[in-house]
C-alpha cells in the first residue's frame, strides 16, 4: 500500500463542497475514464483522502491513476492498493511550486532542461501542454 500527499487547495474541481463522498468517488472514476487511463480500479473518498484499489497493467498506468485521483481540488492524500501486472522502476513525484517550468524541473531531475519533454509525455493525458502546469500540481518524473 502506498500513501501519497497532494495539495488540498490545488487541482481540478470535480465535485461541490456539499456533495456526498460517493459523488466524489464517482467523479474521480469518471475522470479516470475520461482521461482514458488503463486500469481497473475502485475509488472511495473519505474527507480529504482518496482510497484507490485495483489493478493496472504497468507501473506507469498505476502512477497516472494515482495522479488523476490526487490532483483534484479537496484531495490531500491518496492511499493506493493497485497491483501492477508488469514490474518496472517507479517514477518519482514532484510537486510544482510557483515559478516552476517543466524545463526547470527537468534540470533538477535530470541535469538537463532539454529533457522536459520526457516529463510532459509521462504526464499525458493529464497535461495538455508543457506550459500548463500550476503550483500544487503533482507530476510524474520518470526514470531515464
Automatic annotation (TrEMBL):
It holds the Pfam family LysM. This is Potassium binding protein Kbp. Transmembrane segments: none annotated. Residues 17-86 form the BON domain. Residues 92-141 form the LysM domain. Keywords: Cytoplasm. GO terms for cellular component: cytoplasm. InterPro entries: Bact_Kbp, BON_dom, LysM, LysM_dom_sf. PANTHER family: POTASSIUM BINDING PROTEIN KBP (PTHR34700). Coiled coil: none annotated. The keyword Zinc-finger does not apply. The keyword Ligase does not apply. It is found in: Cytoplasm.
Amino acid at each position: 500500500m502506498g500513501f501519497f500527499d497532494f495539495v488540498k487547495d490545488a487541482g481540478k474541481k470535480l465535485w461541490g463542497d456539499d456533495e456526498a463522498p460517493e459523488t466524489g468517488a464517482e467523479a474521480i472514476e469518471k475522470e479516470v475514464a475520461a482521461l482514458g487511463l488503463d486500469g481497473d480500479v475502485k475509488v472511495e473518498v473519505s474527507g480529504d483522502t482518496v482510497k484507490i484499489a485495483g489493478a493496472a497493467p504497468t507501473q506507469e498506468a498505476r502512477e497516472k491513476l494515482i495522479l488523476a485521483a490526487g490532483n483534484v481540488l479537496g484531495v490531500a492524500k491518496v492511499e493506493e492498493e493497485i497491483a501492477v501486472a508488469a514490474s518496472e522502476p517507479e517514477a518519482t513525484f514532484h510537486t510544482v511550486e510557483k515559478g516552476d517550468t517543466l524545463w526547470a524541473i527537468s534540470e533538477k531531475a535530470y541535469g538537463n532542461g532539454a529533457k522536459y519533454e520526457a516529463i510532459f509525455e509521462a504526464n499525458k493525458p493529464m497535461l495538455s501542454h508543457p506550459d500548463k502546469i500550476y503550483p500544487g500540481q503533482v507530476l510524474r518524473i520518470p526514470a531515464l
